[in-house]
Amino acid sequence: MISNEKTMRNADYEMEVVGMAKSELAEMYAPDLSPHAALNRLSRWIAYNPQLTEALRLTGYRKHARQLSPRQVELIFRYLGEP
Is the pLDDT assigned to residue 67 strictly greater than 70? Predict the structure, then answer.
């Protein structure tokens, strides 16, 4: 159920799915790494997952985008699991 453009609730996820900076999401997946290294890791995970890459492409995702929409965050959760 979408409550507004920036927030999405999905019963499949424990976290609330919201639009956020890609660097913020990357740091959630790799809190032990530097922000730059975490972002590189998330970018590699996306690139190495062709199904995720295609699903994100269909949303208008660009690999150098700094912001992720709620839909893009939801897709990342679906394919990579929640951080």
Answer: yes
Report the number of secondary-structure helices (H) and strands (E) in the chain. 4, 5
In a 13 Å sphere around the CA of 55, the CA atoms on its Cβ side amount to 16
> Taking 80 as the threshold, does the pLDDT of residue 10 lie above it?
no
| Residue among 56, 4, 51, 2 nearest 25 (CA) | 56
End-to-end distance of the chain based on CA atoms, in angstroms? 21
Cα(27)–Cα(56) distance, integer angstroms = 19
Secondary structure of residue 82 in the 3-state scheme? coil
pLDDT at 3 over 80: no
- Adjacent-strand bridge partners of 20: 68
User: Per the confidence metrics, is the pTM higher than 0.90?
Assistant: no
